[in-house]
Request: fold
Amino acid sequence: MEQAEAAIIPDEPTIVPVSFTDLTLLFVRIGLTSFGGGLSAWLYREVVGRRHWMKDDDFLGALTMSQVLPGANVINLAVYVGHRLHGGLGAAAALGALLLPPMVVVIGIASLFERIGNLPWLHNSLEGIAAAAMGMTIAMGLRSGRRALANGRWSLFIIAAIFIAIGVLRWPLVPVVLVLSFVSLLFARGRP
Reply:
């Protein structure tokens, strides 16, 4: 059984120290080159997959927390990652780097879009970009699901329950997560 789990989850790489400049530049790049959904997936790929600044479990725990807290998930993640890597100053830098440069660009694009907003090819391009962002989000969900399967079938039950309660039945997020978190803890407690 342990060999099967090892085949599903590869050994995590060693965490690499990160400079304040690298942290800031990553969030500037993410802020300037992305829009729409999928930012959490991109942030995961950059921070965990490519740069090895955080472990998988740390990031997924932060993602869960950012979804429960009020505000946009990526904003909460930026604050968490920045704080985790460089304290309060890192949190402020990550948040500012994520929001300020794109804000300037959006103001410029808004004035341009006012002039060329009626072009059909522009609308088609934006729909394609939105579809790609959804694909990245789905890929991150599948990766989380695979990871959860390694923890036992009860994890899959919790994921399915959350999807049905929030996605299908449209129940409010916070009560669903609170109740299912408690249920998840009960399941985890009963595991050997």
